[in-house]
Amino acid sequence: MNKWLKTGCACVICAFLLLLLPACKQEESLTKVKVAEVTHSIFYTPLYVAKAKGFFKKEGLLVTVNTTWGGDKTMTSLLSNGSDIALVGSETSIYVEAQGAKDPVINFAQLTQTDGTFLVARKDEKQFKWDDVKGKTFLGQRKGGMPQMAGEYALKKHHIDPQKDIDLIQNIDFANISNAFASGTGDYVQLFEPTASLFEKEGIGHIVASFGEASGRMPYTTFMAKESYLKNNENTAEKFTRAIYKAQQWVESHSAKDIAKTIQKDFTDTDPSIIETSINRYKKQKSFSSDPVLQEDEWEQLQSIMDEAGELPKHIPYSKLVNTKIAKKVTSEQ
């Protein structure tokens, strides 16, 4: 390589490094926030929109999201300071409180307001009736988790006793439920998107009902943090919530197709048409909260469902584990 070529290469490298330097400095100046999500699902679309549209960075935050696969693992991450904020079902904060936590886990921003699962049948049942599940094998979710409790609540509303009228299987790990059904286990299964739509497209199963529609509104998935974190990092929590609210409003006002394109990078292994179909299902049944304020009637509905399932350790007042101060502040700004 002659000296002119060497000099040219060195100049190109230097120029590239100079371009990277401002970006590195900018990233270093951002406040880091670690989020643990209970699963990675299109159900959490507004979170991924906040990342993709740069809403977090506009608030001066560098948000990293780690999937922890299960409510117990997510709460362990939060309580052990492995994460700053958890995205998980509100029931987990009640379980922690019932165990006498010295540093309570506080729900401060709501993301979803209905159950996000669908009833998938192995056969294509054009005229499905809830009574059709009686006497059949039902592949449910983890006992004590919100999907399972909401599922049981919906079944009981339709006069089906989950313990007597169906063969209920709920000892399969959350991450393996879809694989178990695909392998031939069960006549019905309770699935989140995009798996439900994917199974339908591939002919593995057919969506016949929505547990979200059947069980009503509740604080199904919320952002929560330890009380001490919110006290010591109130400004950060406010910026985080403002970014989420911007994303919620953006999702509310855009089409499923536009939203699907925006979050595609978070679901690179999923067909774009499946992402769009999944988002459309959730938008139609208003699963995505349009703002982060968790309402008291939703909190009480949650505990009613837990009580009905025999999983409510004790009734926890709304004021004890819900803090709407930040959410109300950011929603009043617009």
TrEMBL record:
<dbReference type="GO" id="GO:0042597">
    <property type="term" value="C:periplasmic space"/>
</dbReference>
<keyword id="KW-0732">Signal</keyword>
<protein>
    <recommendedName>
        <fullName>SsuA/THI5-like domain-containing protein</fullName>
    </recommendedName>
</protein>
<comment type="similarity">
    <text>Belongs to the bacterial solute-binding protein SsuA/TauA family.</text>
</comment>
<feature type="signal peptide">
    <location>
        <begin position="1"/>
        <end position="25"/>
    </location>
</feature>
<dbReference type="Pfam" id="PF13379">
    <property type="entry name" value="NMT1_2"/>
</dbReference>
